[in-house]
Amino acid sequence: MSCCPGGLEVRMIEFLIRKLERFAPLTAEERESLKLLPSKVRNFERGQTIAQQGARPDESAILLEGCAFRYKLLKEGARQIVSVQIPGDFVDLHCFVLRPLDHAVAAASPARVGRVPHEAIRQLLAKHPRLSESLMWDIAVDGAISREWLANQGRRSAYEQLAHLFCELYFRMDWAGLVQEQGFELPLTQIELGDACGLSSVHVNRSLQALRQDGLITFENHRLTVPNIEALVSQADFDPAYLHLLG
Amino acid sequence: MSCCPGGLEVRMIEFLIRKLERFAPLTAEERESLKLLPSKVRNFERGQTIAQQGARPDESAILLEGCAFRYKLLKEGARQIVSVQIPGDFVDLHCFVLRPLDHAVAAASPARVGRVPHEAIRQLLAKHPRLSESLMWDIAVDGAISREWLANQGRRSAYEQLAHLFCELYFRMDWAGLVQEQGFELPLTQIELGDACGLSSVHVNRSLQALRQDGLITFENHRLTVPNIEALVSQADFDPAYLHLLG
DNA sequence: CGTCATATTGACTTTAGTCAATAGAAGTGG
DNA sequence: CCACTTCTATTGACTAAAGTCAATATGACG
Q: Taking the complete model, does pTM exceed 0.85, yes or no?
């Protein structure tokens, strides 16, 4: 575990600031204070647990690099992945106010994670009360994504569900500047895609084949390519509004 | 539409205060300011729309009486209910920071709704910055419930799903003091239960029959009775922790 | 009494799950 | 480098859960 006394890496903080400014512009002082947020940076291997279900962490994690997901374990070993996190995401900001954690967090690929102490967040908000609305917004967007996932699981076919998930990730990754040549790194296995969509891995496999045959995606070597995002959006009945990507 | 110049009904505000104190105790001054929150009270008939998907309300609604649900409409008329609201719930607090609304809100029974202007919330938070954590908490609990619903839809059978939903409502209603003789008013139709669980109404009907035959519930005249809540909890693999009902 | 929404039932279809076998791919130790 | 393990991906055959369609019943209400 390494430590950045000056706060998170500058690049990442710029990223976080840019994200929060989707909600409301920040003042120079607010930006400055965000930049001074302390954090310990830690690396995780694929498959490692970043946070335990039921834990009461006194810090929240920002994903700096790699991919992670939040999940719940149910009886008989079933798993439900409830979100996929990409660089720049506050992985568990809600545990600033909501403890214990109702889910675990795992790294889906090698990942760099910055952990920001809740005490530092509390001081930040004491100094800049207006920022509390920005954090509220971040938590609320997370809720909006969960609701869209609910609609996805409840009312869409496996084919549409996967298409919808890929659209969501495409838009989020694109906003984060991580889409290159119409594709991006997606380290999720078919088992994990199944756990995210409430499907068996066998059925995921077959639905992926259908998406491939329809020319909507390629997916190999942990890289997803979408040659025609409009076509995928249309198949998935996808509307990016719920992501609140526009400032 | 009637108006309470002195704020929400006292009973309801006590209720809201009690709820927020599940997160952290409030000071006398904070309580006082909450009591002074202005609100217009409005009545709705069953089936009426309380808020439109895509709207940008400048107030948030507190459900005072009755039952409501939030839902999304998908292509081809499919509907996904993403939450069920009971008295005391902030139906759309998140729209304080998150607009436009990504879902609609409808009354599931005759309902009384208090609408609190965002401007008043903003002033409340300016005066009592610490309260922002309480509101953050309320939004975060909402997210936790959505995540549990995700696990429900993704990884449980129709029978378990309905049992789980009934457990959740039982616990929430009980906390609100609305459980009498092991049951409570549940105005949802089988179609609506289906839309909440991602099921067809026919399958809901059959699953309800199974729950009845197993002696776990009775459900008639819009009233759900659970003679043995522990048995239902056990069938549903239900753990109330995610509701954060304990102070 | 007629209307409308909801609930119930039966017959049948479809989607997705399960089980099992095989094939790849990545990593490990010799 | 190769045998070995392990995890993942793929395929086929079969099963089961849930959906669809259609008919009927029930209940609330004007």
A: yes
